[in-house]
Amino acid sequence: MRKLILGVSLLALAPGIASAESDDAIVVTGEGLPLPPGTPAYGSVTITRERLTNDASSRIEDVLRDVAGFAQFRRSDSRSANPSAQGATLRALGGNASSRALVLLDGVPQADPFFGYIPFTALVPDRLSLIRVTRGGGAGAFGAGAVAGTIEMVSAGRDLLPDLSASAFYGSRDATEMSATITPDLGTGFVSASGRWDRGDGFYTAPASQRTAADARAAYDNWSVGLRAVAPVSDTLEIQARGLVYRDERTLRFAGADSSSEGQDASIRLIARGPWQVDALAYIQTRNFSNIVISSSSFQKVLDQRNTPSLGIGGKIELRPPVGEDHVLRLGSDLRISDGTMYEDAYSGFTGLVTARRRAGGQTSTLGFFAEDDWTLGNLVLTGGVRADHWTITNGFFEQNDALGLSTTRNNFPDRRAWRATGRAGALFNTSETLSLRAAAYTGFRLPTLNELYRPFTVFPVVTQANANLAPEKLKGVEAGFDLRPMDGVSVGVTAFYNRLDNAIANVTIATNTRQRQNVDAIVAKGIELTAQATLADFFLSASYAYSHSVVKASGVQSDLNGMAPAQSPRHMASATVGWQPQTGAQLSATLRYTGKQYEDDLQTHVLPDALTVDAVASWPVTSALSLVARAENIFDEKVVTRAVADSIDLGTPRTLWIGFRLNR
User: Fold this and answer.
1) 328: closest CA among 289, 375, 368?
2) How far apart are CA 230 and CA 225, in angstroms?
3) pLDDT tens for each residue of 479-514
């Protein structure tokens, strides 16, 4: 009888494990190919499933803040932020709402095809086994776009998913959160079906002294349904399929300022673990977004971004030929295509009548070819890779009609295309069982998103214009560090880095309350990152700190920006979680997060003060399958300023308490 192995095994991450199984074994992991041995040369931080499922907010974007240096455009999470502002970045390279980090789920890019933001509400922690965060440029599959780093999410396999898991929580401000997953075996594979729904009345983002009759709570209501199937085709061949449907609705500060985003994603992946290893996948994403802007003076609707349909399609193929035990060679190609159109209507803030109807959009694509090799020489591992990408920006247009439908503006922007070569190289030297030294250098690039190119936006009273002439961003960087393991259960990592992002896209002030997306000469970020983990008896600690000294390099008409800090880029960030987990199955943990002072705008006019928050989670087993859980966010009710323009500010999540249960059987 053939041996059946189900689930995600940590051993599957070890090089060569796929070929080490016996000939009659069927390996069903639900993962991709093993990590190459040179991966640690680039430095990374892994967030485990235990941590993913025990955060006070139960939201991916907050768990990612365990990695100091991770940031979104604003400090708000996905309950009170505008979805289009939730891009992910690392290393204080500046905020512009689009993701400078490559975010992958089971190898599939997750950024919205039009905006470049990450649909965090659709990425549920319970569905994952781990997240691996690598800061710095990337040259592997889908490496185009990874100018700040890569965030890899891996779905949980059968060994981590019981037949049935469920949770239900009730929280402050009449908030509810419910999720469930069923995972039956399917032949020699498995299927996992999951759903999550959470909603809340929300809080007032404006402080009491600034509220008006038009202010409303930041209510939210979102749900997602996912289906994932993994099955063996043969002893060495595995097929993985995934589907996701989600919808997210939010209200931002004023009554009627409603936004919604939705998506339908599907992907299929083929993994071959024989002598010739193969990782091939294809995906399709259909997304939409709408948003109503309310004037902060007249409190009337002034803009209805009523429809923004977009389509993302792509895929990759990666081959690993058998070139010997000392080498892991990867050859491959990947493709990403983004297409989208914006439809919006402008209204008079006084009469409430339509003043203009606008439509804009276009298409971008990258076709890449890559080769990477990891060469093991005793205790020394050398790794290197190159990419060649052909990128295009095509079919760009902007048109505006008046209220009667007569054309007032019509622009068709010229197509652009070019080749871009990037690469990376690293070295890992394991001096002993307790110390590893590493160093790396890399280049990268990122295309501007359709949003940056063609869609203006307004956060009253500031209007930010699009710019169809934006050039791609280009990164070059170096880093060096070490990983120290002084005793069992204790590890410390230190990384020093220097990154330069040329042609960095920033929101540049061009007039009072008017900004435009422009390329600045560069953003230079240098600093140091510290990580520490320890498990001692029943206690555990995980900590991270990042110091990032980032400055803008600008000349010509932008020379006023030279030497200033990029917007939305704190110099200091820190996170620490300490906990107690005895053999009884109970758990108690507290998380401290600190974000230093940062600036709202490019001219350093508006300051967002530093903020220190403390969260806590406690879990008590009632039976072997059922646990009672209490969660507390921002225990000391720290006022976290998320936006500041003149005397108008917005605040982040106040103290929020939750009580509920988890079931695993």
Assistant:
1) 375
2) 17
3) 999 999 999 999 999 999 999 999 999 989 988 888
Extract the tokens encoding 137.
């440029």
- What is the signed CA dihedral for 161, 167, 172, 176, rounded to 10 degrees? 110
Helix (H, G, I), strand (E, B) or coil at 629: strand
Q: Which two tokens stand for residue 496?
A: 């020093």
455 three-class SS: coil
Compute the distance between CA of residue 433 and CA of residue 491 in angstroms, rounded to an integer. Answer: 11
| DSSP per-residue letters across 31-74 | S-SPPPTTGGGG--EEEEHHHHTS-SS--HHHHGGGSTT-B-SS
Give the span between the Cα atoms of 251 and 317, in whole angstroms. Answer: 41
Contact 467, 482 (CB under 8 A): no
What is the mean pLDDT of the segment spanning 374-385? Answer: 96
- 221 φ/ψ angles, rounded to the nearest 5 degrees: -155, 115
Integer Cα distance of 420 and 461 in angstroms = 39
Average pLDDT across the chain, whole number: 92
Distance (Å, whole) CA 306 – CA 292: 7
- Per-residue tokens: 97: 């709402």
pLDDT for 584 equals 87
Residue with tokens 């140091």: 528
**Of 86, 105, 426, 91, whose CA–CA distance to 259 is shortest?**
86
Spell out the residues 6+ positions from residue 467 whose beta carbon is closer than 8 angstroms to its own: 452, 453, 516, 517, 518
In Å, how far from its chain's centre is CA 248? 17
Q: Which two tokens stand for residue 71?
A: 């940031």
Q: Where are the alpha helices (DSSP H) in 449-526?
A: 450-454
CB atoms within 10 A of CB 278: 17
Sheet holding 45-48, edge to edge: 45-48, 128-135, 149-155, 101-105, 108-109
CA distances from 147 to 162, 289, 295 (A): 37, 26, 36
Considering the four listed CATH numbers 2.50.20.10, 2.60.40.10, 2.40.170.20, 2.40.30.10, the one that applies to the domain covering 3-664 is 2.40.170.20
Helix (H) or strand (E) holding 354: strand 354-377
Cα separation of 411 and 402, whole Å?
Answer: 15
N- to C-terminal Cα distance for the chain?
A: 28
Cα pseudo-dihedral 71, 77, 82, 86, rounded to 10: 30
> Which amino acid would we find at residue 19?
S
> How far apart (Å, rounded) are the C-alpha atoms in residues 461 and 404?
27
Q: Which uninterrupted H or E stretch holds 268?
A: strand 258-273
Do the strands 310-320 and 354-377 form a parallel or antiparallel pair, or are they unpaired? Answer: unpaired
Kindly report the pTM of this predicted structure: 0.93
The CA distance from 11 to 18, in Å, is 9
- At 145, is the secondary structure helix, strand, or coil? coil
61: phi then psi, degrees, rounded to nearest 5 = -65, -30
User: How many Å separate Cα 46 from the centre of its chain?
Assistant: 14
Nearest by Cα to 181 from 150, 224, 221: 224
Q: Which tokens hold the place of 437?
A: 């030294």
